[in-house]
């Protein structure tokens, strides 16, 4: 699986289109699972964390209210959304949940690999930043100690 799935950004016109449909149906009290899913699907592919989180909430709501048909899709997109906001442990939980339902799904196995790669990459970046800060602080402490003598 290509890492693009975590970098794909929804076109603004698609997001506005599905947001409009969703809001119209909500205001009429006629929201459908399809409309909620399509809007959530756009939100998890947004470039904004707040949109992604909103999409995740809508997907979780669907997951808990839908009987069976869409559960796989909800798990898949919840994994993608969580990975996009760097909630890798949560993303992997959703991947594992999907694989319990369908263990042979290669697309989801690929997603798992991509998430683990991102987790490693971001983890090492985090350690590098922490190490740089620590070196900087030690340097400052050394300068302070030298100036006190």
From TrEMBL:
What is recorded about the domains? The C-terminus is required for mitochondrial localization, while the N-terminus is necessary for mitochondrial fission.
- Membrane-spanning residues: 126-146
Q: How does it sit in the membrane?
A: Single-pass membrane protein
So which domain of life are we looking at?
Answer: Eukaryota
Q: Name one GO cellular component term.
A: mitochondrial outer membrane
**Which BP terms in the Gene Ontology apply to this protein?**
autophagy of mitochondrion; mitochondrial fission; mitochondrial fragmentation involved in apoptotic process; peroxisome fission
Any Pfam family from its record, for instance, is Fis1_TPR_N
- State the compartments where it is located: Mitochondrion outer membrane; Peroxisome membrane
Entry's family note:
Belongs to the FIS1 family.
Sorted alphabetically, the keyword list is:
Apoptosis, Membrane, Mitochondrion, Mitochondrion outer membrane, Peroxisome, Transmembrane, Transmembrane helix
What is the role of this chain?
A: Involved in the fragmentation of the mitochondrial network and its perinuclear clustering.
Q: Which CDD domains match?
A: Fis1 (cd12212)
- The protein here is known as Mitochondrial fission 1 protein
- The record's principal subcellular location, in a coarse class, is mitochondrion
